[in-house]
Amino acid sequence: MSVLRPLDKQPGLNTATILLVGTEDALLQQLADAMLKEDCASELKIHLARSLPLPSDVNRPRIDLIMFVVNLHSKYSLQNVEESLRHVDATFFLGKVGFLAMGAGQESHCSIHRNTVTKLANTYRSPLFFCDLEREGFRATVAQRLVRMLQICAGHVPGVSALNLLSLLRSSENPAPEDL
Amino acid sequence: MDETVAEFFKRTILKIPMTEMMTILKAWDFLSEKQLQNVNFRQRKESLVQDLVLLCEKKRASVHDAALLDIVYTQFHRHRKVWDVFQMSKGPGEDIDLFDMEQFKSSFKKILQRALKNVMVSFRDAEENAVWIRIAWGTQYRKPNQYKPVYVVYYSQTPYAFTSSCPLRSNIPLLGQTFETYNSTTPLQEKSLELDIHMDSRIIHENRIEKERVQRVTQETFGDYSQPRLEFAQYKLETKFKSDFNGDILAERKEPLRCLIKFSSPHLLEALKSLAPAGIADAPLSPLLTCIPNKGMNYFKIKDK
């Protein structure tokens, strides 16, 4: 079983790579396009994958951030993310993993409860964003956040590390389970 | 506006049921959104029709615009007509010409107008390379009768044309001749698989091979062309409950569970075809879904073997 590890490769010069994992390929593509439109001093690379593990025979750069995208309308997409999580090394979850839940806006179409993804994110100690990726404005906003987060995870922002960011996010948005 | 044209408008709009009024007027695309917003759609139909005719007059609508509205109405109510199908056959040794829609329309019109006096031809493009042709016939001394038009629907990529029943039987051979004179059949256009080719090299698809497999399997199952239009499929299940959990109460039942599942959609087969490429389901889909066109059934009863 090939497992993704955060520090098993040398970083590329001024390069920041994000891996988006999710079944909704067309929307991931649109999110990727939105991220590339952002003004960014770092060179961005965006990898899109339906699920993990990734094909092993490929030469790819070091992955700085993994975002798992779940569609609340589709149990299949949640199942896909849950299975993919098993292929990620534990050290990735020190600020280099995030979850993105889409479709919360249309509650009548949701077959997964919001709490399910909240619990999932809490279990993995990672931040959770909600965004209806089909709406261009929302998509642009989350793309902006992801680019900033990616730069930090790649170490391009002096003085702030992925772990710093994670503890900042955790204290304001997601209280640790012990605090609930 | 000419009285006869105003009357034609009035009668055409009156035909439209109130529930479809907005949809059809929007599809007609002659009155603007703003103009339609200013109309009171809650009043009695006769008054509404009067208001709409006045609007058309103000906008200087012609008899051709009215004919287009008639076509739109008929497209929505095509099931009300009885259609005859004609198949065109190629003579031996004829060359295959490339089909040009605009050229077809102008030739068709010219040919009919040369052959008959007082004929009015209108065209409206529709889905799948089809064109709807509306023909209002007159006689040598009378203007075209707008209340007894003939419709021809020609699918340009096929040798088939559909005509609505023609009250004047004598004109059918003429229609046939018009097609013959135009004389074109086209090779079916090749439709290529729509694989996204992303220009930006900063975006890498890790599962390209899987995507290609899904596209291939979808193409093998559904083919390249659009699916027959189907609106629902119904499955009646009479099977024992199957469960992953041991000791599930429902799984212990001896009698089969009865369950009815109905899928409905404006275009069910296209929706099924897009499930795997959209990432909502695995490819290949269950044969229970994909067998619908092959078996020609959309009601299924499923029992345990």
In which range does the helix fraction of chain A lie? 25-40%
The structural class of chain B is alpha+beta
- Which percent range describes the beta-strand content of chain B? 15-25%
Shape of chain B: elongated
Tally of extended strands of chain B? 9
Secondary-structure element order of chain B, as H and E? HHHHHEHEEEEHEHEEHHHE
**Termini Cα gap of chain A:** 35 Å
List how many beta strands of chain A DSSP finds.
Answer: 5
Key structural traits:
heterodimer, A: 180 residues, alpha/beta, 5-stranded parallel β-sheet, 5 helices, 5 strands, globular, B: 305 residues, alpha+beta, 5-stranded antiparallel β-sheet, 3-stranded mixed β-sheet, 36% helix, Centromere protein M (chain A), cytoplasm (chain A)
Describe this structure in words.
The complex is a heterodimer of chains A (180) and B (305). Chain A is an alpha/beta fold. Helix content of chain A is 35%, strand content 17%. In chain A, strands 2-1-3-4-5 form a five-stranded parallel β-sheet, with helices on both faces. The termini of chain A are far apart. The mean pLDDT of chain A is 90. Chain B is of the alpha+beta class and 305 residues long. Chain B has eleven helices and nine strands. A five-stranded antiparallel β-sheet of chain B has the order 1-5-4-3-2, with helices on both faces. A three-stranded mixed β-sheet of chain B has the order 8-7-9, with no helix packed on it. In chain B, a hairpin with a 3-residue loop joins strand 2 and strand 3. In chain B, helix 1 (3-15) crosses helix 4 and helix 2 (21-28) crosses helix 5 (63-76). Chain B starts with a helix and ends with a strand. The model of chain B is unreliable at 184-198 (pLDDT under 50). Strand 2 (43-49) of chain A pairs parallel with strand 6 (203-205) of chain B.
